[in-house]
Amino acid sequence: METTKCLIIGSGPAGYTAAIYASRADLKPIVYQGMEPGGQLTTTTEVDNFPGYPEGIDGPKMMEDMQKQAERFGADIRWGMVSEIDTTKRPFKIKIDDGTELLAETVIIATGATAKYLGLESEEKFKGGGVSACATCDGFFYKGKDVAVVGGGDTAAEEATYLANMCRKVYLIHRRDQLRASKAMQNKVLSTPNIEVLWNHEVKEIVGVEQGFTKALNGAVLVNNKTGEEKKIDIDGFFLAIGHKPNTDLFVGKLDMDETGYLITKPDSTATNVPGIFAAGDVQDKHYRQAVTAAGTGAMAAIEAERFLG
Ligand code: NDP
């Protein structure tokens, strides 16, 4: 059976950065890219906040470059999904969905998280045409315009206040009459003059124009779930902030996770509760979720794997 010193699961900024560091440390890492090679950034357009790109860079292009950089140092990057992992003994036995089996002395989990969407057909239609799940990534494109954020948690509150700094008006659409966000974030939202909270509202449909391959939303139809009343708001951007789901189904019952499924790592470390298994990026981070922080923890994981192997 094939063996490796370091198996990396996932190919976002965390996985590729771990691959760059691990290959430079001569661990000859094998990377399985997973369902979405390149990760969440391949679904965004311009990335303007990753240091080193003064003019910004396309998300997919940045991920392609990270892959090439890892390959330059010898990382073995493969298409495929890990379907099973035995965490009970080292080396860890890993199964891939094509039937391949490997033994890994260390494992770096960088499987990321997936933003939750409402599940509307019209939402799917306008992805890339005004619908986004990341205000920090895409907010800039809506400078001076009107936008909406859906959700009532800390992310929604944070994204609404972030957008309020650059947009003309921000609607915060929440399905209840009370925000779930921390008191401090609630106060910030409620005291920002250009944020209007639409309490007890749900989104029925996103509307816009489609011309060939170009599509742009220009509004949303909302329903008041107390009165049943419908209303339309005019907006150019629609931001989902209804939570993320960490991609950890594979590790349930095998690695420690919090109540929402995020892997738990030791303080100031990427080590999980199983010696030799490390976690980097969004799969263990529900607070920052930035490409640069994911890359940072990817580097940490590779350095820790190298030290673990001694
Ligand atoms: P949360 O799960 O905390 O909040 C999700 C919000 O979306 C809730 O208000 C929920 O409504 C709403 N929602 C969920 N599903 C739907 C749906 N289908 N339709 C409409 N609304 C929906 O997620 P967050 O991403 O906000 O936060 C995740 C974690 O990260 C939390 O622990 C949070 O505290 C933390 N965090 C901390 C930050 C900070 O400290 N600076 C910043 C960002 C996040 P309802 O309230 O009715 O359930």
Structural class: alpha/beta
Number of domains: 2
Q: Portion of residues in helices?
A: 10-25%
- The overall average pLDDT, rounded, is 95
Taking the sheet with the most strands, its summary is: 7 strands, mixed
CATH topology descriptor of the largest domain: FAD/NAD(P)-binding domain
Question: Ranges with pLDDT <50 over ≥5 residues?
Answer: none
Briefly say what this structure is.
The chain has seven helices and 19 strands.
List keywords for this structure.
FAD/NAD(P)-binding domain; alpha/beta; binds NADPH dihydro-nicotinamide-adenine-dinucleotide phosphate; single chain; five-stranded parallel sheet; 310 residues; seven-stranded mixed sheet; 2 domains
Present the secondary structure layout:
Blueprint: E1 2-9, H1 13-24, E2 30-32, E3 46-47, E4 57-58, H2 59-72, E5 76-78, E6 82-86, E7 92-96, E8 101-109, E9 113-115, H3 121-125, E10 131-132, H4 135-138, E11 146-150, H5 154-164, E12 169-173, H6 183-190, E13 195-198, E14 201-211, E15 214-224, E16 230-234, E17 237-240, E18 244-246, E19 277-279, H7 291-309
Helix pairs in contact: 1-2, 1-7, 5-6
NADPH dihydro-nicotinamide-adenine-dinucleotide phosphate (NDP) is lined by residues 118, 150-156, 158, 175-176, 180, 242-243, 286-287.
